[in-house]
Amino acid sequence: MILMRMLAFSATAAALLAGCNENKTAAPSAPVAPAEDAATAAKAVVAETGTGFTTETKTFREWTAVCDNINNCTAYGPAAENSGFVMIKLDAGPDARPRVHAGSWSLPSDATRILLYIDGRNYAGKMEALEAEDPVLTINNASDQLLGALANGRAMTLSAGGETAAVSLTGAAAAFLWIDERQGRIGTTTALIRKGDRPASTVPAAPTAPRLTTAAPVAQNNLPKNMPQQVSALPQIRECAEVNQGGMAINEEWSVQRLGANTLLWSIPCGAGAYNFSQAYVLSANDGAGARSITFQSSGRPQEILTNSSFDPDSNTISAFGKGRGLGDCGQMAVWAWTGQDFALKEEDMMNNCLGVHWEFWPSTWRTRS
């Protein structure tokens, strides 16, 4: 899994490091949880599913299949020149039914109807109009005939307004089989491709998502007006300052929020491009003691820098949307929740291929429950 970052960095280093005085009205200092202890706790939340399932992505020629930690799966294939997609989603469990989504930016954006053909046969669905985005064809509770055609068909096209987009089916059958195996559907009436006579009741139950308890939000009062030296001196923050050297002043662009009576969260700009803006985050006591950079766990590699992120004090969460390109049709979306010790991954969606897929349909890669 890759968080795509296309950043042309600029801003000023010296201004970022200007503030060094703590707020004199803040509560007495107390140690912040050591980085190694907090990291262990965060990794435990990411690792614990109770089912043995992990997020996994597989490529089958031109198709990609993704299953998250609770075994909800997605498979998709590209239109010609990556101008669109067809996508199948199937949650875990015996009662889940497959949903099909398809669209292409090569078709008229004002299309009121998209036709999906496989080997000359049309499969009807409903149109979904998304905000300022190209329309998407959705087929809920996809039929066995449609699934069979997707797996074994020779040619698929999407058409609207006299325009046509060819969609690849190369690799669809293998992607379906992988999902069937992972979800325990082979030989059952619910299988995507390798169906049998065994009833749906023989399919394993959907796994239970790991529990994540978010700490209660606190009042945002007694916040410092200057950044303590213990924060600005951290290697990660010094690196961000060097990245921003020579650009506009950013001494007023860092922010600080309160997580507890003696715990502060610092957000520091760490680069800017045409459509991506990166941030580093630091935890410290009110007077800067115990300052440490935050490493954010994910379904893939840990991240020290987040992209297009912000903290919401009402929910005690940090959200990020790293765009793979300006259209925002690929990349990573994730939310981390404050547990009282560190930020743990709450949910994550990932789209590694830029095919014009609206973020609402991106594959799930991590889910938790409260």
Task: Characterise this structure.
Helices cover 14% and strands 31% of the residues. It is of the alpha+beta class and 370 residues long. The strands form 4 sheets. Strands 1-2-3-4-5-9-8 form a 7-stranded antiparallel beta sheet, with helices on one face. Strands 12, 13, 14, 15 and 16 form a 5-stranded antiparallel beta sheet that branches. The two termini are 25 Å apart.
Quick structural gist:
The chain is α+β, with helices and mostly antiparallel strands. The protein is built from 6 helices and 21 strands. The longest helix is centred in the first third of the chain and has 13 residues.
Taking strands numbered 1, 2, ... along the chain, how are they ordered across the largest sheet? 1-2-3-4-5-9-8
How far apart, in Å, are the first and last alpha carbons? 25 Å
Average the pLDDT over all residues and give the rounded result: 87
Could you give a short account of the major beta sheet? 7 strands, antiparallel
Summarize the amount of helix as a percent range. 10-25%
Residue windows where pLDDT falls under 50 for at least 5 positions: 1-31, 46-50, 246-250
Helix segment count?
6
Number of strands: 21
- Report the β-strand fraction as a percent range: 25-35%
| CA radius of gyration | 24 Å
SS class: alpha+beta
Shape: elongated
- From N to C, what is the helix and strand string? HHEEEEEEEEEHEEHHHEEEEEEEEEE
